[in-house]
Amino acid sequence: MIRLSELQMKEVISVVDGRRLGFIIDLEIDVRTGRIIALILADRDTKGGFFGKAEEVQVLWKQILRIGTDVILVKESSDQQTLMLP
C-alpha cells in the first residue's frame, strides 16, 4: 500500500518524450468504488492562471505505466488535458 504523501514526493514523467509533467497535488476518486480515477498535477510549465492559481493537469489512472521509487511514468494520450480547476 502507498500513501498520498508518498505519491506526492514522486515526479510524474512522460515516457513519450521524457518531459517532466510535475508533482501530484490531488487525486480524483470514484466515491462509489473507492478507486482512483486520476492524478491531479500542478502544471510545471505555467506560473499561474488568471488569478495567480496555477493550471492543473489531469493524468488518468489508466495512463500510469509504472510507479517507481522516485518517479511515476505515464503515457500521455488524447485523454490528457489541462484543467483550470476552481
Overall 3D shape: globular
- CATH classification, class level: Mainly Beta
Overall tally of structural domains: 1
Give the helix level as a range of percent.
under 10%
Span between N and C termini? 30 Å
Q: Report the sheet-strand fraction.
A: 35-45%
**Given the helix and strand composition, which structural class is it?**
mainly beta
CATH architecture group name: Roll
What is the total tally of β strands? Answer: 7
Q: Widest sheet: strand order?
A: 5-6-1-2-3-4-7
Average of the residue pLDDT scores: 82
- C-alpha-based Rg, rounded: 13 Å
Low-confidence stretches: 82-86
Report on the structure:
By secondary structure, this protein is mainly β. The protein is built from 1 helix and 7 strands, in the order αβββββββ. It has a single domain, classed as SH3 type barrels (Roll), CATH 2.30.30. 5% of the residues lie in helices and 43% in strands. The protein has a 7-stranded mixed beta sheet, with no helix packed on it. It is globular and about 35 Å long. InterPro entries: PRC-brl_dom, PRC_barrel-like_sf, Spore_YlmC/YmxH.
Fold blueprint:
Blueprint: H1 4-7, E1 11-14, E2 20-29, E3 36-42, E4 56-60, E5 64-67, E6 71-74, E7 81-83
Parallel strand pairs: 1-6
Antiparallel strand pairs: 1-2, 2-3, 3-4, 4-7, 5-6
Organism: Oceanobacillus indicireducens
InterPro entries: PRC-brl_dom, PRC_barrel-like_sf, Spore_YlmC/YmxH
Protein name: PRC-barrel domain-containing protein
Summarize this, please?
Helices cover about 5% and strands about 45% of the residues.
